Amino acid sequence: MPQSIYKPGLHIVSTFSAPVELLRDAVYCRELFDGLIGELGLVKVGEVYHSFPQGGYTAIVALTESHVSIHTWPEFGMATFDVFLSSFMNDNTEKVRAFFDATVAGFRATVTNRQEIMR
Amino acid sequence: MPQSIYKPGLHIVSTFSAPVELLRDAVYCRELFDGLIGELGLVKVGEVYHSFPQGGYTAIVALTESHVSIHTWPEFGMATFDVFLSSFMNDNTEKVRAFFDATVAGFRATVTNRQEIMR
Fold first, then answer.
1. Which residues of chain A have pLDDT under 70?
2. Are the CB atoms for A35 and A52 separated by under 8 Å?
3. ipTM
4. Which of A51, A76, A102, B58 is packed most tightly, with the most Cβ within 10 A?
């Protein structure tokens, strides 16, 4: 039964540093994201994985629950990453944090910036 | 010549209300976004447009400069919208604000939340 009012979802917006080899490996990122989507019971409705000449890549995954995006910069040893899940049918707040924490662990990352926005 | 240090880009994260007919019209959104991408000299590298059974849609456009995303909720008369452009080769800060302002105008929207994040 749909909610009668909009329930804001959590959006985590971050920047992290990570090993260069992972920031160049879009296949690794895809396996990581696909695994997390499955484990957390999310539903993918489309995606873009695009590699750049300098070795970085952009991945954007559209979910029924909203989206995940990462832009990697191996030349700077860092990435911008965000995950946003609406809470339309269920409160997905903890799933956002779980996705974020698992991505940080998967990238062996050091988070340099992390903001939580309810929207 | 690439920069030797990472230059943060501007990410605007927002929520707005808008007329229901525009929140249901993914074709309109695509024309609006494609027009803005052209006018601002941005480069699209992939996109997802996905319509949901209840009439809303998700659009995510991957750019060489980062991404644009919108999730519409016609049943609530609102959308979550964000635009993020890195400033890798050029300072794209004003292009982010121009994209945001033109999207708000194009959707005849009332912005209920808007945050600027440098990342």
1. 1-3
2. no
3. 0.94
4. B58
Beta-bridged to residue A70, according to DSSP, are A59, A81
Q: Which residues contact B107 (CB under 8 A, 6 or more apart)?
A: B16, B18, B19, B22, B23, B32, B79
Please name the CATH architecture into which domain A9-118 falls: 4-Layer Sandwich (3.60)
Spell out the domain ranges in chain A.
Answer: 9-118
Q: Is A89 on the interface with B (CB under 8 A)?
A: no
Is the CB of A13 inside 8 Å of chain B's CB atoms? yes
Closest CA to A72 of A23, A20, A113, A21: A23
Query: How many angstroms away from the CA of B107 is the closest CA of chain A?
Result: 18
Whether A66 has its CB under 8 Å from any CB of chain B: the answer is yes
